[in-house]
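Aggregate trends can hide what the representation actually does to any particular protein. In the encoding step, the backbone of a single protein was reduced to a row of integers, each denoting a local shape. The record that follows shows the chain in one-letter code together with its fold in token form.

***
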Amino acid sequence: MPVKRLHTLRGSTMIEVVVGFFLISLAVGLTTVLFNQVMNSSVLYSRHRAYLAVNNLVEKQQEQNTYEAVSEEYGDLVIEVTLTPFDEEKKLYIVTYQAIQKEKKEVLYKRQLLKQIKPNNHETSE
């Protein structure tokens, strides 16, 4: 009888070890996934803030109907606007908006528009 009982303990111990390893690996996997989601959400949040800041500046310039090369600060972001000539005859310019993070000097969002701009005061002509 004691030999049989010892044999059953070995089997149950083996099952406990396998279940224990499974639970530990499941916990490590869930922790890793959760950590990656948290890290990605902070990066996505920064990019979303950059997107909103650039779009606010674009809307402001479109409402005023003026496009000029400026650099504005929005918290930890710097929004840079550059004008690049595209077609001199038609006075077409590529207006580039870049949201740059101050600390890392990393471009988080970039948007380009093709606009017809008057040369004297940088107003657009429709």
Remarks:
- The chain has a mean pLDDT of 83.
- The longest helix spans residues 2-64.
